[in-house]
């Protein structure tokens, strides 16, 4: 089984599922593997569609089990030294756990050489989808996609360090989907990438300076013979929740473009949800109707 990074936001996040700016100070990490099963509780995280409410049953603490043999990063909390943070490098679940420093974590550390080997392998199975806005030399993070086609979020220091060291490699090819067609052109990551968990630098000399953003990908995506079902009804429903005032309630939905992310020859739809001082992205997939399959990415200003 191939393992990869995936982050579940911390125990201390608010119950509506919006991540707090918790990991803001540089941290050092110990890479290891759990010797035995670890059980604890976590606050559930939920990305809800606009206009919906969160059922009470979804706001109660939930139990989390991290299986024996799971690859993990361990770190001391940047904001509270009494807490230790465990990030899992897991196949199908997001887990970032904040634990009291007195709670023992049953793990054995791995050497730097072994850690590097594992993380290089993980990086090969990761594709990152982003948005390149006109005349901007950087890409805004939307999501990462693993080999199984699952959409994953990114918001921690552990992720940022992993990306910068193993994924955002200088001179790596970045593919840009032109919004007006299905063609994909290529560019490169510069020799000195941007140090950010929600953006990475890009050489924009090969991109056109039009007013429409590009969908970007770190792996080439086949766009031949792909269709796009009508999404006017979906967009009309989202527009009902817009608030275009120049204040904190501001909310606007903008269609970025379409791209076939799951290789079924039916394009997924990427929409930006733009707030007053932040934004994130919605990905919709069509199966008889448009369904929200991912919400996340972007960052606050």
Describe this structure in words.
With 301 residues, the chain is mostly beta strands. The protein is built from three helices and 18 strands. Strands 8, 9, 10, 11, 12, 13 and 14 form a seven-stranded antiparallel beta sheet that branches. β5 and β6 (96-100) form a beta hairpin. The two termini are 38 Å apart. The model is unreliable at 1-26 and 44-60 (pLDDT under 50).
Helix segment count? 3
Stretches with pLDDT under 50, minimum 5 residues: 1-26, 44-60
Query: Which class do the helix and strand fractions yield?
Result: mainly beta
Using the CA coordinates, give the radius of gyration. 20 Å
E-strand count = 18
Per the principal axes of the C-alpha atoms, what is the gross shape?
A: globular
The biggest sheet, with number of strands, parallel, antiparallel or mixed sense and barrel status, is: 7 strands, antiparallel
Task: Give a brief description.
By secondary structure, the chain is mostly beta strands. The chain is 11% helix and 34% strand. The strands form 4 sheets. Strands 8, 9, 10, 11, 12, 13 and 14 form a 7-stranded antiparallel beta sheet that branches. Strands 6-5-4-1-7 form a 5-stranded antiparallel beta sheet, with no helix packed on it. A 4-stranded antiparallel beta sheet has the order 15-16-17-18, with helices on one face.
């Amino acid at each position: 089984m191939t393992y990869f990074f995936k982050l579940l936001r911390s125990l201390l996040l608010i119950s509506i599922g919006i991540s707090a700016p918790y990991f803001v100070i540089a941290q050092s990490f110990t890479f290891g593997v759990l010797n035995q099963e670890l059980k604890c509780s976590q606050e559930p995280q939920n990305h809800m569609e606009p206009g919906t409410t969160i059922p009470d049953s979804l706001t109660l603490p939930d139990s989390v089990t991290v299986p024996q043999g799971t690859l993990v990063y361990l770190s001391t909390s940047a904001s509270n030294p009494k807490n230790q943070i465990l990030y899992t490098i897991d196949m199908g679940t997001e887990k970032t756990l904040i634990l009291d420093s007195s709670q023992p974590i049953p793990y054995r550390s791995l050497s730097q050489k072994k850690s590097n080997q594992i993380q290089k392998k993980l990086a090969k199975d990761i594709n990152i989808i982003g948005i390149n806005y006109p005349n901007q030399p950087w890409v805004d993070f939307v999501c990462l996609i693993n080999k199984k086609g699952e959409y994953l979020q990114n918001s921690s220091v552990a992720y940022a360090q992993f990306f910068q060291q193993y994924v955002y490699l200088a001179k790596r090819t970045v593919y840009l989907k032109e919004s007006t067609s299905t063609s994909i052109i290529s560019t490169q990551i510069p020799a000195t990438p941007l140090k950010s968990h929600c953006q990475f630098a890009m050489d924009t000399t090969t991109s056109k300076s039009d007013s429409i953003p590009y969908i970007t990908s770190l792996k080439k995506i086949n766009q031949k013979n792909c269709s796009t079902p009508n999404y006017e009804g979906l967009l009309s429903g989202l527009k009902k929740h817009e608030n275009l005032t120049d204040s904190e309630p501001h909310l606007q939905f903008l269609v970025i473009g379409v791209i076939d992310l799951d290789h079924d020859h039916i394009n997924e739809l990427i929409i930006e949800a733009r707030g007053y001082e932040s934004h994130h992205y919605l990905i919709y997939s069509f199966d008889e109707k448009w369904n929200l399959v991912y919400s996340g990415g972007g960052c606050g200003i």
